[in-house]
């Protein structure tokens, strides 16, 4: 039996943005995230900037880390 699960993404995050905030929630720093995903630190920063914009955050990067932790604690809805 195959079960297809779809994660509800009401924030419009790309798959990569979602991966970046998931790694943030695990406590990784930008350099570690870049190494893990095989991208540059600048790319990670760009993804985080996009996340800030989508969440309407215009301050400290730690806010996104807090949001990401809360998202993964509460788990996004699964259909």
Structural description of this entry:
The chain is mainly alpha-helical and 79 residues long. It is built from four helices and no strands. It has helices at 15-25, 30-37, 41-55, 62-74. Helix 2 (30-37) crosses helix 3. The longest helix is centred in the middle third of the chain and has 15 residues, at 41-55. It is globular and about 25 Å long.
Helix and strand topology:
Layout: H1 15-25, H2 30-37, H3 41-55, H4 62-74
Helix pairs in contact: 1-3, 1-4, 2-3
Strand proportion, as a percent range, falls in under 5%
Poorly predicted parts: none
Average per-residue pLDDT, rounded, comes to 76
Distance between the termini: 17 Å
Along the chain, the helix and strand elements come as HHHH
Shape annotation: globular
Question: TL;DR?
Answer:
With 79 residues, this protein is mostly helical. Helix content is 59%, strand content 0%.
Name some characteristics of this structure.
globular, mainly alpha, single chain
